[in-house]
Structure formats: structure tokens, C-alpha cells
From TrEMBL:
UniProt feature coiled coil, ranges: 191-218
Keywords: Coiled coil, Kinase, Phosphoprotein, Transferase
Name of the protein in question: histidine kinase
Record's keyword annotation contains Kinase: yes
Species classification: Bacteria, Pseudomonadati, Candidatus Hydrogenedentota, Candidatus Abyssobacteria
Ranges for domain Histidine kinase: 403-616
Length: 761
């Protein structure tokens, strides 16, 4: 009987077990669906990103028989996972099972359970952690973890993070739960995507509104600043806008000193009474200026300092010091320093707005500087024009004085000469001798007055000396090395040798080289491409020193090439050039007997070529004559022809030389002298440089030099104006002795004797 009923009981038991399991599965499914509904309801209520994470772990631990739950979010840029929300174990040192190579700070993708899930984007189920040798118990784990289920929070191709679930009993999770929890994870992922999109839209709207506010503020500031180009007014408006717009207590503007290169306080505004505020602000900028200026880059444009500006803590009433560089390109020419007693720093938007304000301040100050420079250049141009007018007047005055000096020096020469002759007369009394000496002193005084007038009216002559052109160029480059380096301009030097000697006026030629280097710098300044200045020197067969200055700047337009050396012609912007640099340089090189030209064949920028002849330096001109070592003659044994249009000068020289034993004849102009020289034989010719008629002194010399070079060696010139340019040049080139009117008897005898002595050498 029992055997017959046993199968029936077993069958009932099987049915009961199946019913209980089905009931359990049903209840579990209902619970899961309930969670999905609750999650969906809460997600649709407009939860933000992190609220969804918190709701998710709360639902999992409260409704899904999960002891521990956490959400880790992925940072795609850093390639790592970090904890966002947790329940039951979530502390900084919470209980988690990770791979043996875990960094202890965050999960890298592929590191630990969560890292592997994030990398593979597939869930991982571990029924018993004791049987998984690849995982170890965390050192500070507070709860027992035997089973783990990690699920990716994945919406389409977008991975938000990982949902980690764990229990203290093994075998808690199975495939059905994995499937159900994946549905929950998918629902949460959709909600996270929606919340992320909403957050991005909100941030975009805030940024747009912020940009609009900034733009309106910047436009208002720009209009305010640029309405007045006076520097003081610009600084005052700048400080007022910063002080009122950002709630600072003190604002100061510092500009870099051109002479010392340090930041100096130019203007400030304050809402507080601070003793010796100027010294206080200068102390701050001394401490912080280098740090602020070095932050001149898009990434670190704004610098904030929260430590006390004084050495002793608590001495400063201001806790936040904000410094913003004022720049023009890469050149930091000033700083804005703003201070507040509040502890908080500016947020990112306010920092950006303050930066924009300071950009406008930089532009306004730069424009103000340009206007000031323009006014100064206009003033300098007017002064230059005035100087040119004065120069023309002086040139005319020089011509007038030259004629006047000639007329004055002739009688002075006679007075001085005859006075010297009378002094040699021993029959005169001492009183007569004293009177003659007074006459000579008066003549000498008159001579100096005339000489001084000529010195004032004439242009200073070139002071040539042997100069190393290479060293002169290097000295010029030293003045601009800093400007070249900070403006990305390379200087390439190609010298044929380290020494290149020419007889030049180093001061004037330095001005020429500096003008050419400055023009090259201006042509390359402010361009995006790197600049290059090439300087090349060589010695030509002429012989001449050949110097090239080549740049890769904007060059010279074809239509302007014939005008570059004209006075007041310039291609630079208004206020940046007078148009005199190249013109003056051209004149200096010409006076040296050289050439300054623009290379028409060079089209990569501009190339200027300087050619300086290598000339020997003539012996220096003294007040009377070129002194040469030669034996003196004691008079006699020579014939002299005296040529001068002034009778008193001729007679004095004749009397003086005749008394010394010379045979002396006279002629009153160059033509008569030329005919006399052909009619007789003479050893020495004493002639005035300036005489009426076709043959003055220099033309007579040149004509005689062609006919009789030997006789030309015995020429002695008389002049009243060695500062006249052509006369000075002729005397140097001829190499002959000369006398400067009025001259003393001893000077006449000395130069005649030395000339005769040279003829006998």
C-alpha cells in the first residue's frame, strides 16, 4: 500500500517545489519590473547625472537583494574609472576586489573587475571569489565579498561607466539575474545619456549667455577707452572699469620703464585708505612681476596669488592678488594688479572677462602710445625741417663769409707781414716795437674771429681714421640684439675676414650702418614668418670694402625704388619714419667717396649695398702747412713767383723773400702767372687759391701739373678758408704746403725753406 502511494507523494513534492520556484521566479521578476518602473519614474522626474547614480545604487540594495552596490564613471580622456556613488561599502577605503596591479587611486581601463568590464563592455559574473586566484582581498576590506557581478552602463556606443554588485554569500548571482540586472543597467544608461545631454545643453546656454554679457561689457569698455587717446585719461578709465566691474578694493596699472626695464606704477584707484599705497603697490609688483609676465600664453594667461604680499603673515589686508599682463604681441609692456580682501578667487568666466578687459586696456594704451609717438614724430619732423632751413641759411652764410673772409684776410695778411718786417728793423725804438706787437696781436685776434665765423658756418669735415668695419658693424648690432631675439629675427654674419680696414669717419659710418639695420628690422617686425638679416662683407679689387645688408621683409615696391634715397620719402606708416635716414646715409657715403645703392636684382626682401673705397690717410692739415722733415736753406739760390690779386699781399711776400736772398717775381692773376712761367724758369710758385679770372690757384696748379709735373711740386698755396669743402679736399689731394691768411713772416720763411728743401731731396 505504501509502495503504491509513495510515487504520488513524490509527484506532489515535485509539483510543490516547482510551484515554489515558479512563485519565487515570478516574485523576483515582479520585483525587477518594479525596480525598472521605479527607476524609470525617478529618471523621468528630471534627475541630474549624479542623482541617477545615487538612485541606482539605492534601488539595487533596497529592492534587489544586493548587499553592496556602486557606480564608477569613466573618464575617456584619462582612460580611467572613478567612484561616483556607492551604498553599504562606499567609503574612501571601501571593500572591493581588484586586480593585483591596481594603482590604489583609480581603475585604469582593463585594471580590476570594473576596468575589465569597461574595456570589454561586457558583464563579468563571479560566483565565488575564493575560487578566483586572480583576485585578492583588499587590505582594509570591511565586509565579506564572495560573489560579484559587474555590468557596463552602456547606451549605444557610449560607455558611461560600470555598475558593481556584490554579496557576502557565494552563488548569489546567476544568468537570470545577470540578464535582469543588465536590463536595469541599460535603463539607467539611457537616463544617464539623457541627463548628460540636458547638462550639456544647460552649460551651452550658460556659456552663450555669459559670452553675450561679456561681449556687451567689452564693447562698452572699448568705446569708453578708445574715445580718448590721452594716456592719463585711458589709464583712469581702465582702472575705473576694473574696479567697478569686478568688486576689487585696489587696482593699479604698471608700465615697463624704457630706461631700466622695470615695472613702474603709473596710476591707481582704491576704495580703501592705505598708508603709503604707492610704495605698497610697488612692493607687490616687484615680487610678482616676473611670475605674471612669464604667464603670457593662452594656457596660463591669468595668474592668482593668495599668499600675503608682505614677509610677515597677516601684514597685508588683501588676500587675493590678481595680475594680468598687458602685451602687444609677445612684448609684455605692462601689468594690471588688482587686489581684494575676500578669500575667494575669480571663477573661470570672470577671469576670462577680466582678461578681455585687459586686452582692451592693452590696445588703448598701445594706441595712446602711437598717438604720442606720432605727435613726437611730427614735432621732430618740424624740427628737422627747421634744421634743414637753418642748414640752408648756414650754407648761404658760409658762402657769404667765405667772400668776406677773403676780403678781410688779404689786408690782414699785409698788415701782419709788414709789421713783422718792421719788427726786424733794429733802428726802430722800443716804443715802436711795442706798438708793432700790439698791431700783430690785434691782427691775430681778427684772424681768430674770421676763422671762428667760418667754423660756425661750414659743415664739420669728415674725421677719417683707419677703422675696422667689422667691429663697427658688431657695435651697431649690439644696440639691436635684444630686439632681434625677442622678435624671432635671426642675424646671419658672413664676413670674409675678421678685419676689414677702411679710412672712414667711424661716427658717421656707424650712423649709416645703424640706419640700414633699423630699416631691415622695421621691414621684418610684426610678421608671422621668422625674420632673417644677413650681413656680408668682402674686399674687392678696386680696392673697396663691399658690405651687403639683406633682409626677408616686405621689400621695396618697384615704383618706389628710385625714390628711396630722396629726402622725406618713406614707405613706413605715419609716425614711424621721417624719410631722412636713407637720404642722410646716402650723403655720408658719398662724402666718403663711396656708393650706397639698393640691389634691384634681390626680390626676397630688400638688400642695400655699401661700397667704401680703401684710401690712405693723408697727413693732417695744421693751421699753417703740412709739416715735413727737410733741411732748411738759408735763403738765396732760388727763384719764386708770387701770384695774388691783392697788391699788398704780393708786395709783402716779395719784400720778405727778397730780403732772404730769393729772386722774386709777381703776377696779379692766374693767366699772367701761367705766361710768366712759360717765359722763365722758377723753383717755387706761391699762389692764392681764390682769384678772379679763368685761372684761379687750383686751375693754375692743374694746368702746370700737366705741362711740368716737376714744377708743380714747388707750389705753395695761400687761402683764407680751409673749411670750404672743395678747398679742403683739394689741399688734401694735392699734398702741397699751404699758408692760411693772415700768416706771420716766420711761417712764410719756414714753408718756403721747407719746400725748397724738399725739392733738393
Amino acid at each position: 500500500m505504501m509502495d503504491e502511494t509513495f510515487p504520488e507523494n513524490v509527484e506532489k513534492q515535485i509539483y510543490a517545489d516547482a510551484l515554489r520556484k515558479a512563485t519565487h521566479d515570478y516574485e523576483e521578476l515582479v520585483a525587477q519590473l518594479s525596480v525598472l518602473r521605479l527607476l524609470n519614474d525617478s529618471f523621468q522626474a528630471g534627475s541630474n547625472f549624479y542623482a541617477i547614480c545615487q538612485q541606482l545604487v539605492h534601488f539595487m540594495t533596497e529592492a534587489m537583494d544586493v548587499e553592496n552596490a556602486s557606480v564608477m564613471l569613466v573618464n575617456h580622456e584619462r582612460g580611467e574609472l572613478r567612484l561616483a556613488a556607492a551604498k553599504s561599502f562606499c567609503e574612501d577605503e571601501g571593500s572591493v576586489f581588484v586586480g593585483r596591479d591596481w594603482s590604489g587611486k583609480a581603475f585604469r581601463l582593463g585594471e580590476g573587475i570594473a576596468g575589465k568590464v569597461a574595456q570589454s563592455r561586457k558583464s563579468i559574473l563571479i560566483n565565488d571569489t575564493h575560487k578566483e586566484s586572480s583576485f585578492v582581498k583588499a587590505e582594509r576590506q570591511k565586509v565579506s565579498v564572495r560573489s560579484i557581478l559587474s555590468l557596463p552602463l552602456l547606451h549605444g556606443d557610449l560607455l558611461h561607466g560600470v555598475l558593481n554588485l556584490s554579496n557576502s554569500e557565494p552563488g548569489t548571482f546567476d544568468k537570470k539575474k545577470e540578464y535582469a540586472f543588465n536590463l536595469i543597467a541599460s535603463t539607467a544608461s539611457v537616463a544617464l545619456s539623457y541627463a548628460s545631454a540636458v547638462e550639456q545643453l544647460r552649460q551651452a546656454n550658460e556659456q552663450l549667455e555669459s559670452r553675450n554679457r561679456e561681449l556687451a561689457a567689452i564693447v562698452a569698455v572699448s568705446e569708453s577707452l578708445h574715445s580718448n587717446l590721452e594716456l592719463d585719461a585711458v589709464l583712469d578709465a581702465s582702472l575705473r572699469n576694473v574696479l567697478e566691474g569686478f568688486d576689487f578694493d585696489v587696482v593699479g596699472v604698471f608700465l615697463r620703464s624704457k630706461s631700466e626695464g622695470v615695472m613702474e606704477l603709473k596710476s591707481y584707484r582704491t576704495l580703501q585708505q592705505i598708508p603709503d599705497i604707492e610704495s605698497y603697490l610697488q612692493k607687490l609688483i616687484t615680487r610678482f612681476s616676473d611670475t605674471i609676465a612669464s604667464s603670457l600664453s593662452p594656457a596660463t594667461y591669468f595668474r592668482t596669488f593668495t599668499d600675503s604680499p608682505d614677509e610677515g603673515a597677516g601684514q597685508s589686508p588683501h588676500r587675493v592678488c590678481v595680475g594680468i599682463p598687458l602685451s602687444n604681441g609677445d612684448d609684455c609692456f605692462g601689468l594690471v594688479l588688482a587686489l581684494t580682501s575676500r578669500e575667494s578667487e575669480l571663477d573661470e568666466d570672470r577671469t576670462r572677462l577680466l582678461s578681455s578687459f585687459c586686452n582692451q586696456i592693452s590696445l588703448a594704451i598701445h594706441n595712446s602710445a602711437l598717438i604720442s609717438r606720432l605727435k613726437e614724430n611730427i614735432r621732430e619732423l618740424q624740427e628737422t625741417k627747421h634744421q634743414l632751413i637753418q642748414s640752408d641759411k648756414l650754407a648761404l652764410l658760409g658762402e657769404m663769409l667765405s667772400g668776406v673772409a677773403h676780403e678781410i684776410n688779404n689786408p690782414l695778411a699785409a698788415i701782419m707781414g709788414y709789421s713783422d718786417l718792421l719788427l726786424s728793423d733794429t733802428s726802430l725804438s722800443e716804443d715802436h716795437h711795442a706798438m708793432l706787437k700790439k698791431i700783430l696781436r690785434s691782427v691775430d685776434r681778427s684772424r681768430k674771429i674770421v676763422h671762428g665765423l667760418l667754423s660756425f658756418a661750414r659743415k664739420t669735415e669728415i674725421q677719417r681714421r683707419e677703422t675696422n668695419v667689422i667691429q663697427l658693424i658688431e657695435r651697431v648690432l649690439e644696440h639691436r640684439n635684444y630686439d632681434f631675439s625677442i622678435n624671432n629675427i635671426e642675424v646671419v654674419k658672413k664676413y670674409e675676414s675678421d678685419t676689414c680696414i677702411a679710412a672712414i669717419d667711424p661716427n658717421q659710418m656707424e650712423q649709416v650702418f645703424l640706419n640700414l639695420v633699423n630699416n631691415a628690422f622695421d621691414a621684418m617686425y610684426g610678421r608671422e614668418l621668422a625674420g632673417k638679416l644677413e650681413i656680408k662683407t668682402r674686399l674687392t679689387d678696386d680696392p673697396a670694402v663691399h658690405i651687403e645688408f639683406s633682409d626677408n621683409g616686405h621689400g621695396v615696391r618697384e615704383a618706389d625704388r628710385n625714390k628711396v634715397f630722396e629726402p622725406f620719402f618713406t614707405t613706413k606708416e605715419v609716425g614711424k619714419g621721417t624719410g631722412l635716414g636713407l637720404s642722410i646715409s646716402y650723403g655720408i657715403v658719398k662724402e666718403h667717396g663711396g656708393e650706397l645703392s639698393l640691389d634691384d636684382a634681390y626680390h626676397d626682401g630688400a638688400r642695400f649695398i655699401v661700397k667704401l673705397p680703401v684710401v690712405s690717410i693723408q697727413p693732417s692739415i695744421d693751421d699753417g702747412f703740412v709739416r715735413r722733415e727737410a733741411p732748411e736753406l738759408n735763403g738765396g739760390r732760388g727763384r719764386v713767383l708770387v701770384v695774388d690779386d691783392e697788391e699788398v699781399v704780393r708786395d709783402f711776400i716779395k719784400v720778405a723773400l727778397t730780403s732772404d736772398g730769393f729772386v722774386v717775381d709777381c703776377a696779379d692773376d692766374g693767366q699772367a702767372a701761367y705766361e710768366t712761367l712759360h717765359a722763365g724758369e722758377y723753383d717755387v710758385v706761391i699762389t692764392d687759391l681764390r682769384m678772379p679770372g679763368a685761372l684761379d690757384g687750383r686751375r693754375l696748379f692743374l694746368k702746370v701739373h700737366e705741362d711740368n709735373p716737376k714744377l708743380a711740386e714747388g707750389f705753395i698755396f695761400i687761402t683764407g678758408d680751409i673749411m670750404e669743402k672743395d678747398a679742403n679736399k683739394f689741399l688734401k689731394e694735392s699734398g702741397r704746403n699751404f699758408l692760411l691768411k693772415p700768416f706771420a713772416l716766420k711761417d712764410l720763411r719756414e714753408v718756403v725753406n721747407k719746400t725748397f728743401g724738399n725739392l733738393t731731396l
